[in-house]
């Protein structure tokens, strides 16, 4: 029976490319390992997989009685629903340490970098395993996505060096141009159902017993949302009620202006003022410089629930 590698629910490009890259590494090291996913792929992820010739990892939501590596998260609410009945072999992540626990020792690679694939590149180097050209390309794209082409405050020197090294392996001369091509795919929202947009990059967090959902849509021009903003606001209100959440926040991130408009539905009208020092007006607030959910949005929000 093989081991599995799986990222978080509603997977992004980092989760999917991490599963592919880590499964190849572990299999090369002698442990048969299969990449998997917990949900459907985003247009950006499909773009990456198509460009480098990958099939989508298998859709697998149940892991009871099986062994797996967790990538790109360590919060139970973001992982498989039956994670307590599985054996966790390792966690590779670049977020805050979550609440997944194990009954046996495990391999942990957790680093304060911009992308899980940066850590997996370090793992390849540590084990002296050569990265195949197509896997290097996918890993590079995941890092560019997570670091917003190095604009995110989460980006580190390690992320930049890994992109440069992976681009050389993949034979990509202008990786920034490829990054912009990816974000143009992200920005194509016309014709996409509103719920699909809200859930495109969405994570739930347990904040001191309160369930808080935070989604993010990164585009190169915020005006693409002008005609649908009211629908987005209505849908996050519906999502809050459906999931019995305390709050739902949707970040509309403009990567060129380097900031985000937050659409907020919450049981606490002062939520953003307490967390970020800026009050919402009609359920909306623009915060200049906000690009990163994990570094700029989640930590102060978590503290506001303490």
From TrEMBL:
DHHA2 domain: residues covered: 179-305
Name of the protein described by the UniProt record: inorganic diphosphatase
Keywords associated with the record: Hydrolase, Manganese, Metal-binding
Recorded catalytic activity of this chain's protein: diphosphate + H2O = 2 phosphate + H(+)
GO cellular component: cytoplasm
Organism placement in taxonomy: Bacteria, Pseudomonadati, Pseudomonadota, Gammaproteobacteria, Alteromonadales
Gene3D superfamilies given in the database record: DHHA2 domain, inorganic pyrophosphatase (n-terminal core)
UniProt GO MF annotations: inorganic diphosphate phosphatase activity; metal ion binding
Annotated source species: Thalassomonas actiniarum
Cofactor(s) needed by this chain: Mn(2+)
Superkingdom as given in the UniProt entry: Bacteria
SUPFAM superfamilies linked to this entry: DHH phosphoesterases
EC number(s) recorded for this UniProt protein: 3.6.1.1
Keyword match Hydrolase: yes
